[in-house]
Amino acid sequence: MQNQSRKIGYYGTYGVQxxxxxxxxxxxxxxxxxxxTHMNRNEYSLLLSxxxxxxxxxxxEFSAGxxxxxxxxxxxxxxxxxxxxxxxxxxxxxxxxxxxxxYCDEFLKESAGNGLEQAHSRSLLSTYSHLHMLFRQIHSSxxxxxxERGTPD
Length: 153
Prior knowledge:
Number of helices: 5
Helix content: 55-70%
Low-confidence stretches: 1-13
Number of domains: 1
C-alpha cells in the first residue's frame, strides 16, 4: 500500500487532503459542541481531534494546525499572524486560521526560499486553507442554528 504522505526533505508534507467531506449534519453537531469564534486552545485541539477521528482532516493537518506551524521566514514581524492562545484565553480561531492562510500566502509571494521551503509553505497554505474552510462551515452551521431557534449567535 502506497503511503499518501510523502516526505520532502526536512520539512514534510502537510497538504494531503482527506477523502471525507464535512457534511452539514456533522458541521451542525460540531457547532453545538464548539464555538469556533470563541474558544480556548484545549477546545481547539479537541475540535481538531474530532475532525481527524472523522477522517475530515489528516494526521499531518492535525499536527500543523495543533502546533501552529508556519513557514520559516524573515518576513517582518508586523506581518506575522497572532499566536495561538495559551491556557484558558479565548480566541476567534476562524480569524486566526485566516491570518495563517494570509501569512503562508504572503511568504510564498515574497520568499525567495529554496524548493524545500516553497514546497513546505505551499503544503501549509493548503492545510490552513482547508482548516479555515472547515471552521467557517462549522461557524455558519452555528449561525444558521441560532437563526432557526430565534436566538442570537
